[in-house]
């Protein structure tokens, strides 16, 4: 590399540089900098990298930069990693690396053809570097000449403007804060309606909070630093002489002050980070800080492309985004199809009236408690605590006339929408067809995935042809037509008052778009539902019921044939007409780019069919509702996505940021829960379970670091309950059994759900309809066959509740005292003449008020009479009724299945006695309790233990 070539790049006499020469046409690195900004301290050359140690001219901070040109072969890349490790071994400053690594972090970064993608060329930075240069943005530039895309790491911080007011949860921890708010509230005098007074007083309260935060509470970081300086001051004085009693008290106050500001700082960054799974008190402020920065960086925009034009100026970006959203949320004026002729199910008049009764305080309080404490709850709790002072309580009832004007005030709208949503979901199953499972009480979205996989399984085993249509609705919440929605509700029997409330909720929304934390625009909408609104999912499901009704009508008329479709091109044409009509009525359009048709078996003219519908052709295995569809469920590859998701999440968390207490919480609430959706329907191969258990185990003890850390306590012990000496974590194989067992329970407990009808039609049922038959032969080797394997242990823990008794066997079912009479009275069972008789058949209504008519093969001997007496004594508390028979879960809360209790049943019994109550105390930080837990097990790494380990 010649100096003349480098000088041609610009910066004149202020340019300095270092270079690593190319090897022929491969490799080669050049690092340039402006000497007015950076001063080079040292540099290191390697075979594949060039590292420079810089010092900022402005503030003297030292940091590292490494340019990388990675080798192509796996063996040579090991040399690159060794080079970088050596650089980190000699320098320990904040580090930034950039270049062509020729390596991927995740499977998705490699193209389908295995070629290098732009993701292999990137900047990587250490967390300490990101702390020093927060707000940097990495973006790809155009490539007018080269076959490589230039990657730009742009600094200078994120663009900022006036930020919206945010309630800080840490304020609630300040002594006297609530008393201060109460006094302010009483001082503010406003006249008008109750709702106007509430809005006006809250607005005034917000202004007072701003002033108090600025002038009294002060700068959080500055206050913490000042408190620490006081502690250092008294430590210095104490090192020279003894402190007087008054000075000792001053030092104690300084320490308490510092502790207070550290606690408030942690609360502040936890709220900003949105990592609400990790509780406060474990000194995880560094982690919260970096996660908040990560969210801010991910959400930042330095430029945007709208209608083919790149916008880069701050004002242009904000205005362009605001205009784009305004246009998206504006209804097109034009003809709309009428749904008057569509037949929809209706709620009863009594149910409609129950939706419109006045709101009670208990109802609103329950909704409030369901809301997230780290989002809107701070403000809501604050307002609720002063509910009586607000002047809106009238004998425990709140009328809509009081609350209606507040729907446009965002602070209270979510609370009111939550109350309305809680009412609406009670009647949703009365008007939503069984084919819709999402957001309907008593139904699960997993039902749809089970049905789809079982249908495909039947097609494949019978070698039938079939066609799957996966349709995606484009920007669904933003597109739905308001008048269509209200017509739908009207046809479903909702009252005029309820319709008025819904209109107020959807039509009064005004939007402002946060661009880099700065509000842009303020505009109304004329279509669509609010994102994050508690009502929106339920209203959308009701709107989709119209499409379901259209499809049912087409099936009834022979234009579609449901699951028995034979890949008929004419049927696809009819489906496309239905979708076009539905779009004309509702405004909801199918996103053809994300939709596909998937053939099952050899389907002729599949490409022509795709053209007819306007979408692409897919193939099995695929995904549906986030779960595998038509995949070999025993294959480990089904779980590749889950494993990668877990590892991606771990890549965001580093050992030095999260305490061990925090890691426990993370594993329990995040990592262990990530596979649960899959575990609830598919059996996890033991190999995959061992790998994921190892990921959790390594993270607990090492926090994701590369170096191996000592695992002080066996994983089997860790997965025990805390009362048994464990940490309450769960082994995935056993959790999988418990989750699959829930289907066995649901088959017996649910009445006529669609998924149960499908399983019954495919496999048949036995035991008076409580159980599905076992799958035999080539038919029935799909998902359900694996679920059925959990039947034995589930039925060992299930019993019956006698109603009519027509579906419960008298001798062989566990209905009396939770056990089988054939087990408790084996001698009498052997003598019974009707061993398969039902409870109903053994009850004789002709005995006065009814009685048990026990029938045996012979008369009893004298020594057998006591057995009969004992049996009749047990039976005296039972008699059939007019209700339906049902099942119960033995030992379960209210007789219902719970995964937690099922998990404890499939785990091995453990009689260990452990002093858990003395360790896991709420007021003790988790990381302290974790150390006490290790000590109780006798596994603390003391000096002698370290010496034994070498």
TrEMBL record:
CDD domains: RT_nLTR_like. Transmembrane segments: none annotated. Residues 412-627 form the Reverse transcriptase domain. It comes from the Eukaryota. InterPro entries: DNA/RNA_pol_sf, Endo/exonu/phosph_ase_sf, RT_dom, RVT-Znf. Residues 897-950 form the Reverse transcriptase zinc-binding domain. Pfam families: RVT_1 (PF00078), zf-RVT (PF13966). This is Putative ribonuclease H protein. It comes from Vitis vinifera (Grape).
């Amino acid at each position: 590399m010649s100096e003349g070539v480098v000088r041609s790049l610009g910066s004149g006499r202020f340019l300095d540089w270092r270079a690593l020469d190319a090897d022929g046409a491969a490799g080669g690195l050049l690092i340039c900098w402006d000497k007015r900004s950076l001063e080079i301290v040292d540099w290191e050359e390697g075979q594949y990298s060039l590292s420079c140690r810089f010092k900022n001219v402005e503030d003297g901070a030292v940091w590292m930069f490494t340019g990388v040109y990675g080798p192509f072969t796996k063996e040579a890349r090991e040399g690159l990693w060794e080079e970088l490790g050596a650089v980190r071994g000699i320098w320990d400053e904040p580090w930034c690396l950039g270049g062509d690594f020729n390596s991927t972090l995740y499977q998705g970064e490699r193209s389908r053809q295995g070629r290098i993608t732009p993701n292999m060329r990137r900047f990587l930075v250490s967390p300490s570097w990101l702390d020093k240069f927060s707000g940097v943005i990495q973006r790809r530039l155009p490539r007018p000449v080269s076959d490589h895309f230039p990657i730009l790491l742009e600094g200078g911080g994120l663009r900022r403007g006036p930020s919206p007011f945010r309630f800080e949860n840490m304020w609630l921890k300040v002594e006297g804060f609530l008393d201060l708010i109460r006094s302010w509230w009483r001082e503010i005098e406003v006249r008008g309606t109750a709702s106007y007074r509430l809005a006006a007083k809250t607005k005034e309260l917000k202004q007072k909070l701003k002033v108090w935060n600025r002038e009294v509470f002060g700068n959080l970081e500055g206050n913490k630093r000042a408190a620490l300086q006081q502690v250092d001051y008294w430590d210095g004085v104490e090192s020279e002489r003894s402190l007087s009693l008054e000075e000792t008290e001053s030092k104690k106050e300084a320490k308490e002050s510092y502790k207070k500001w550290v606690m408030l700082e942690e609360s502040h960054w936890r709220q900003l980070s949105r990592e609400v799974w990790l509780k406060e008190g474990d000194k995880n402020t560094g982690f919260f800080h970096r996660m908040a920065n990560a969210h801010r960086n991910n959400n930042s925009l330095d430029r945007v492309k709208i209608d083919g034009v790149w916008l880069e100026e701050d004002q242009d970006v904000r205005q362009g985004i605001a205009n784009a959203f305004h246009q998206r949320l504006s209804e097109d004026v034009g003809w709309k199809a009428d749904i008057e002729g569509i037949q929809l199910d209706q709620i009863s008049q009594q149910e409609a009236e129950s939706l419109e009764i006045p709101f009670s305080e208990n109802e609103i309080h329950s909704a409030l408690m369901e809301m997230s404490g780290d989002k809107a709850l701070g403000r809501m709790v604050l307002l609720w605590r002063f509910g009586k002072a607000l002047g809106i309580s009238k004998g425990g009832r709140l009328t809509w006339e009081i609350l209606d004007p507040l729907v446009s005030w965002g602070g209270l709208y979510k609370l009111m929408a939550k109350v309305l949503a809680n009412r609406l979901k009670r009647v949703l199953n009365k008007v939503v067809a069984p084919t819709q499972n999402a957001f309907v009480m008593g139904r699960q979205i997993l039902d749809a995935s089970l049905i789809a996989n079982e249908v495909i399984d039947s097609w494949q085993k019978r070698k039938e042809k079939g066609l799957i249509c996966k349709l995606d609705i484009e920007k669904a919440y933003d597109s739905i037509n308001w008048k269509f929605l209200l017509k739908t509700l009207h046809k479903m029997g909702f009252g005029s008052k309820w319709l008025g409330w819904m209109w107020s909720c959807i039509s009064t929304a005004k939007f402002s778009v946060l661009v880099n934390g700065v509000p842009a625009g303020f505009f109304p909408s004329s279509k669509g539902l609010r994102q994050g609104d508690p009502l929106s999912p339920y209203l959308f499901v009701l709107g989709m019921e119209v499409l379901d009704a259209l499809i049912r009508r087409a099936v009834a008329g022979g234009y579609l044939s449901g699951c028995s479709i034979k890949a008929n091109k004419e049927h696809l044409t009819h489906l496309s007409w239905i979708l076009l009509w539905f779009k004309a009525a509702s405004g909801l359009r199918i996103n053809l780019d994300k939709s596909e048709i998937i053939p099952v078996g050899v389907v002729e003219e599949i490409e022509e069919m795709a053209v007819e519908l306007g979408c692409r052709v897919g193939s099995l295995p695929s995904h549906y509702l986030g779960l595998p569809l038509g995949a070999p469920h025993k294959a480990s590859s089904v779980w590749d996505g889950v494993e990668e998701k877990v590892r991606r999440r771990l890549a965001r968390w580093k050992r030095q940021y999260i305490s061990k207490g925090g890691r426990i919480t993370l594993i329990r609430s995040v990592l262990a829960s990530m596979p649960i959706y899959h575990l609830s329907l598919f059996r996890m191969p033991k190999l995959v379970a061992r790998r994921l258990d190892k990921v959790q185990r390594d993270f607990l003890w090492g926090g994701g670091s590369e170096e191996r850390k000592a695992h002080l306590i066996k994983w089997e012990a860790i997965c025990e309950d805390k009362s048994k000496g464990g940490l309450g974590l769960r082994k995935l194989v056993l959790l999988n059994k418990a989750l699959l067992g829930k289907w066995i329970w649901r088959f017996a407990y649910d009445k006529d759900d669609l998924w149960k009808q499908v399983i019954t039609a495919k496999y048949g049922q036995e035991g008076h309809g409580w159980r599905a038959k076992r799958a035999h032969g080539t038919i029935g080797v799909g998902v359900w066959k694996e679920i059925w394997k959990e039947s034995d242990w589930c039925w060992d823990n299930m019993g019956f509740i006698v109603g009519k008794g027509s579906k419960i066997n008298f001798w062989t079912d566990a209905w009396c005292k939770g056990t089988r009479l054939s087990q408790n009275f084996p001698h009498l069972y052997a003598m019974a003449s009707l061993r398969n008789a039902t409870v109903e058949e053994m009850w004789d209504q002709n005995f006065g008020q009814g009685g048990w008519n026990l029938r045996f093969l012979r008369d009893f001997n004298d020594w057998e009479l006591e057995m009969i007496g004992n049996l009749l004594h047990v039976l005296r508390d039972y008699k059939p009724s007019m209700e339906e028979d049902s099942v119960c879960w033995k030992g379960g809360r209210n007789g219902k299945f719970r995964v937690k209790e099922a998990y404890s049943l499939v785990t091995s019994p453990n009689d260990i006695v452990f002093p858990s109550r003395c360790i896991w105390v709420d007021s003790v930080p988790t990381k302290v309790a974790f150390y006490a837990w290790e000590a109780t097990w006798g596994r603390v790494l003391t000096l002698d233990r370290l010496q034994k380990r070498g």
